[in-house]
Amino acid sequence: MTNLDLYAKIEPMIGFYEAYENLYQKYLNILKKYPVQKVLDVGCGNGMFLSLLSEKYEAFGIDISSEMVHICRKKGLDIACCYLHEVSGAYDTIVAVADVLNYMPHKDLQKFLEDVYVHLKKGGIFVCDVNTLHGFEDVAAGSMNVDEGDRFLAIDAEFEEDMLHTDIVYFEKRSDDCFVKEEAKIVQYYHSLSDILSLSPMKMIKKFDISLFSTEADKTILVFQK
Question: Are strands 151-160 and 120-131 parallel, antiparallel or unpaired?
Fold first, then answer.
């Protein structure tokens, strides 16, 4: 099991769904302003946003977590377990929702943005969001414990040197009443707007600061065009 596969298992316990629904609506409002037909959802996770996209567009999703892909396929979504550079074809729009870019170190982010450019049609748009510094320092950093009786989750996240280190410990009761322990470490990276712009072969045409988890802006939505 990969770190992202464990995250797929604990995601329902974290309680982010309502905030993410707000984020998805902001994306849909942006897409309405452009001539979109064919959409690629990169890092589509559990497929909640991909489901919404599929109601309006020809939508395809990719994720590197086999567990997330399994969840999406159970929903009947069109998805593959792969990286962006392995995808064929070109799209009117590519989206990367819920801080997908923050999971990439600087060197990987440049290659990713180049791959986005390759898979966009001329004039196509790329929409993504990244965590602000406040989003990392004051929102994501900290601890969380969730006890559901037969499942227990402990998350501890520390932000330093522009990296968020998150330790996840998860216990699940088996049929013999013994608990199985699983652990994972996840690293996310803060990317300033200037860093992203310096790495992108696309032109940024819109920027929206938004607040999902606090009164200050904890995310920024960026819109690029090829």
Answer: unpaired
